[in-house]
Amino acid sequence: MKSAQTEYLRPAAADDVPALLALRTEAEKWLRSKGTDQWSDPETGERAITKWRASIDEGRAWVVIGEQGDVLATVSRGPVDRDFWTDADRPETALYLYKLIVSREASGRQLGARIVDWMSRLAAMEGRTWVRIDTWRTNSGLHSFYERLGFEHVRTEGPAHRRSGWLAQRAAGTLVFPNDPLPVGPAEGAIESVRPHLPAQQGKSDEGSESRR
Known about the structure:
Elements: E1 8-11, H1 17-33, H2 42-57, E2 61-65, E3 71-78, E4 94-102, H3 111-125, E5 130-136, H4 140-148, E6 152-156, E7 164-171, E8 184-187, E9 190-192
Parallel strand pairs: 4-5
Antiparallel strand pairs: 1-2, 2-3, 3-4, 5-7, 6-7, 8-9
């Protein structure tokens, strides 16, 4: 019999910053081992970490907590990035997903796909049409990961001051694992799941590289 999964989502807090920075450092090393230059620029990394701290302060960053109370993954939502998305894209129709990172320890648990499903549920609950991402332009493995999750490439932008710019979107409410939602909690004595009645899209996914932007 398959054992019950114990991971759950909660808002990130200031006390989580060391664990989040450790996740990022681990991801940087793993990405280098895969031959990608993502996050290889220290200046880019410093700027990203500053934004990360701001997203925690503003309640836009979340963490996945494991059975031992350790941080297994993180994700953030944020405002539209005007370096990439224009008025013609109707930016108000989308939820923008940033900084999805899953620890190597949790590889194979489909946490990346389940986190994206959770954001997809949230987007649909807010009445949005899309979940949108922008990723490192040269990380083709990451592009493939998102495409397997149902994202469609919109276009690639290449501003000189940015390394990101591969733009993609997935319809809000699309679910790869509709029967395996990540719970939000824990509540007193139990963990409650957010399970709105949304259309589901069954599919297979591969964790691949979980490091985002």
